[in-house]
Design brief:
Order of helices and strands: HEEEEEEEEEE
Number of strands: 10
Radius of gyration: 16 Å
Shape: globular
Number of helices: 1
Structural class: mainly beta
Oligomer: single chain
CATH topology of the domain at 1-13 and 70-183: Jelly Rolls
CATH architecture of the domain at 1-13 and 70-183: Sandwich
Distance between the termini: 33 Å
Largest sheet: 6 strands, mixed
Strand content: 25-35%
């Protein structure tokens, strides 16, 4: 139902604004040129560690609340504070959204929890290219959780949003737990 902001940003030319906002793109794993017939090999999470500074992305060790239109970073076992606020990314329905990166491995089981106070929460899990893998119920709630097994290694995105079509503001806590790949 909801179109992911990130999926739309991948289709925009690099550097082009999206609805007056800065486009958000994952750092795709290096791959062979499009003309090559050989498929790209999956990358490990360690091979995709971000450089020291990526414009518009918090460094992985940063623990402060990301500023509007800054991608946050969360690691397995962490809880991070965030805030939906005016100036954040806008979803297709006009609601506000924050984006968080995390590195995952193929087959890894993850549990993402979102706790909100003043509004019902909603989340989407996007693959490294911005395609939606999973989402929570659009009915939301103050405590929502998403469990998923990752299909490949890469840098995934969590889009934190509010349920419904009205733009809500307020604080939230995002937690990420990861287990070993299923056997």
């Amino acid at each position: 139902m909801r179109a992911a902001l990130i999926s739309l940003a991948v289709l925009a030319p690099f550097g082009a604004p999206l609805l007056g906002q800065a486009p958000v793109r994952p750092n795709p794993p290096p791959a062979a040129p499009a003309a090559a017939a050989a498929p790209a090999r999956p990358q490990t999470a360690a091979a995709q560690s971000p450089p020291v500074s990526i414009p518009g992305v918090q460094t992985p060790t940063e623990t402060s609340v990301p500023a509007p239109q800054v991608i946050g970073w969360i690691r397995a076992g962490q809880s991070r504070e965030g805030r939906l606020d005016l100036g954040d990314y806008r979803m297709g329905d006009g609601t506000l959204a924050d984006v968080w990166y995390f590195d995952g491995t193929q087959g890894q089981r993850i549990a993402i929890a979102l706790r909100t106070g003043d509004y019902d929460g909603y989340m989407q899990l996007l693959d490294p290219y911005g395609a939606k893998l999973a989402e929570t119920s659009v009915r939301g709630g103050h405590d929502v959780e998403l469990m998923f097994q990752l299909p490949a290694a890469g840098r995934f995105q969590i889009v934190v949003n509010s349920a419904g079509s009205d733009p809500h503001t307020g604080t939230y806590t995002l937690s990420l737990k990861a287990g070993p790949p299923a056997r």
